[in-house]
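As agreed, record passed on underneath.
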Amino acid sequence: MARHYLDHASTSPLRPQAREAMVAVLEGRGFEGLVPADPGRVHSEGMAARVGLEQARAQVADLVGARAREVVFTSGATEAIAAATWGALRRATDASEPRSGERAGRAARAGAPQVIVAAVEHSAVRQSSEVFADALGGRVTVVGVDGQGRVDPDQVLAAVDEAGPDGTALVHLQWANHEVGTTQPVAEVVAACRPRGVLVHVDAAQAVGHVPVAFDALGADLLSLSGHKLGGPAGTGALLVRRGLRLDPLLLGGDQERARRAGLENVAGLVGLAAACAALADQDRLADEAAAARAHTDRVLAAAANLPGVAVYGDPVGRVPQLVCLGIDGIEPQAVLLGLDQAGVAAHSGSACASEGLEDSPVLAAMGVDAHRSLRVSVGWSTTDADIDALLGALPPVLDRLRALGATP
């Protein structure tokens, strides 16, 4: 049986360009015939690796409209989010160790800095904010959303205090929601926070590689991205840090990434990430893939309108092109996923970060819709019309069969 993968929002298959670039590095063909080495060393192997790493940094920066020096490589968006949150809170509390060597404890912290989080943010944002704010004596303010999962920028700004020890250290606002696809008013929030001196972090994991992103033009202070969401390798990502902004690093132990993130860089993986970014930056590929993704998901939305007991969650228009979410009335999500899987279709349901237990989604709960019964369909660079045909052919009979099984005699 042919398989049809429609869970790209979780992870997207590796692009051929990324695979080829990684294999070349691992086989010693990518760095002037030299074996991969530590890019921090001054021998020929290390210098060749440094050249490859900096070329990769420039290719990632080119895709997202940033300067190469603003790109800090990480193991993924989760680490990037944690680093942004930790760094912003440390900056606000001035809790770094004094140069004299004297300990800096809770008593040395100047105030209770605030982190603002939209109720629909990814768990990596919510949990990093809660844990680090608690550790540094801060506080977290949650801003609600409307029925489509979108924040009101006026509500976000009403929650913002002036920057300072007791003010707002950081505003988190995702570019697009990871479960329903709704886009957020990031430009408006960023523009309003800049004059107040308040840092803004944008989680762009569901945006980069799917819609045009221009970090410097946006004016955000921090932006996180994930390699495996756009066809790069898992275990790669980046945090973009606005030029001139200095933050304490989350990971300590070395001076890699210009002392912004310790640890030997995953050179082969980052070269693969860069190759995926370069492929998207080539001519009109990003626009072409976005148009194809929109056509695929529009077909899903059109079909859903004719299915009884099926609703659309999120904004069907103001969304990223690759993702739609459906509410399935009266049927347990596990049964729907298993039915589709038996038909050769892979999709997702429930909390996007807790698939093992199919936990109720805090995103959908914040929107005021059924947080338990949902079906997320997400497409990507490798999706074909046949994949959508398979879903649309399988979903109605799966739902009919499950409803018949649950009917009262």
Summary: DSSP finds 13 helices and twelve strands in the chain.
